[in-house]
């Protein structure tokens, strides 16, 4: 696998990354392999497709796109392929078995649109090099764990994701009510820690509630675009629908990382997608 990747990419570090991504994709697609004798060509095809994705990310970024994430929307995108299998409970069991730091990086990389190294680094508050090393270790551990977890009994992550998606849509489309706790409901701890995109932290739901009220008053609406859920962690992604008279009121989108304990959300970390670069006349 490494030889194929290196021959295409010509870079050792990129080839190693691709091999690790390809290993996870192969684990997620084991049921597609009908003839074990064809495993070699099958794996090489996955490596080649993953290399194509990596090469596409080296292309110049079109005007208005801040990084490589928008270039990843193709049929052979590792994140897209793995996301296709996200409701396979055995994959989630493998991911949830990682340490918190590795798990967060893996979830953002493979199950959300905030999947470039730069975005993950910004979200996790660590250097890009740390993100690379965490993902490398996560892929190594998943490659060992997934063949074991596939045969076991697993929690119904598909049902949990559907439930959490309904929860996200209900909250993000609601009219802010009289008090924070009444608005957020019983699943939200009144002492939840809220971490805003610039890193400032608040205890309690008041600051988040005030942001909802302000946005709603200003005519901003939220559209849920993706929800990923596993035991103890949920990721929401939403687009901001700004009013026509103020199209730049909010950034294009946001990602919410919600952690829970004993059935209640205890912390929320918010990340905003970068605003598109302005095109000068």
Quick structural summary:
The chain contains eleven helices and six strands. By secondary structure, it is an alpha+beta fold. The protein starts with a helix and ends in a 9-residue tail after the last strand.
Q: Termini separation (Å)? A: 47 Å
What strand line-up does the widest sheet have? Answer: 2-1-6-5-4-3
Topology pattern, helix = H, strand = E = HHHHHHHHHHEEHEEEE
Q: Assess the beta-strand content as a share of residues.
A: 15-25%
**Cα Rg:** 20 Å
Q: What overall form do the CA principal axes indicate?
A: globular
Q: Structural class of the helix and strand makeup?
A: alpha+beta
Contiguous runs where pLDDT drops below 50 for at least 5 residues: 57-84
Helix content: 40-55%
Q: What summary fits the major beta sheet?
A: 6 strands, mixed
What does this protein look like?
The chain has 281 residues and is of the alpha+beta class. The chain has 2 domains: 2-149, no CATH class; 157-272, Nuclear Transport Factor 2, Chain: A, CATH 3.10.450. It is built from 11 helices and 6 strands. The chain has a 6-stranded mixed β-sheet. Helix 7 crosses helix 8 (128-149). It is globular, with a radius of gyration of 20 Å. The termini are far apart. Mean pLDDT is 78; it is low at 57-84.
């Amino acid at each position: 696998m490494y030889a194929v990747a290196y021959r295409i990419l010509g870079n050792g570090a990129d080839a190693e990354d691709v091999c690790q991504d390809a290993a996870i994709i192969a684990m997620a697609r084991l049921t597609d392999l009908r003839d074990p004798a064809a495993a070699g060509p099958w794996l090489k095809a996955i490596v080649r497709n993953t290399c194509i994705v990596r090469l596409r990310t080296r292309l110049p970024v079109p005007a208005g796109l801040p990084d490589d994430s928008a270039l990843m929307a193709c049929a052979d995108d590792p994140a897209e392929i793995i996301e296709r299998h996200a409701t396979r409970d055995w994959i989630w069991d493998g991911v949830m078995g990682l340490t918190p730091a590795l798990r967060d990086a893996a979830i953002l990389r493979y199950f959300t649109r905030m999947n470039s190294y730069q975005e993950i680094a910004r979200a996790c508050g660590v250097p890009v090099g740390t993100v690379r090393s965490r993902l490398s270790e996560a892929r190594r551990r998943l490659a060992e764990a997934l063949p074991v977890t596939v045969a076991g009994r697993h929690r119904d992550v598909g049902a949990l994701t559907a439930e959490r998606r309904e929860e996200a849509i209900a909250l993000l489309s609601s009219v802010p009510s009289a008090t924070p706790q009444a608005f957020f409901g019983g699943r939200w701890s009144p002492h939840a820690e809220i971490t805003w995109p610039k890193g400032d932290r608040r205890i309690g739901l008041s600051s988040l509630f005030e942001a909802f009220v302000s946005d709603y008053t200003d005519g901003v609406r939220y559209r849920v675009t993706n929800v990923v859920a596993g035991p103890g962690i949920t990721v929401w992604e939403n687009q901001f629908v700004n009013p026509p008279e103020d199209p730049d009121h909010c950034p294009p989108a946001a990602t919410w990382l919600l952690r829970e304990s004993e059935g209640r959300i205890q912390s929320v970390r918010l990340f905003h997608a970068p605003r598109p670069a302005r095109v000068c006349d």
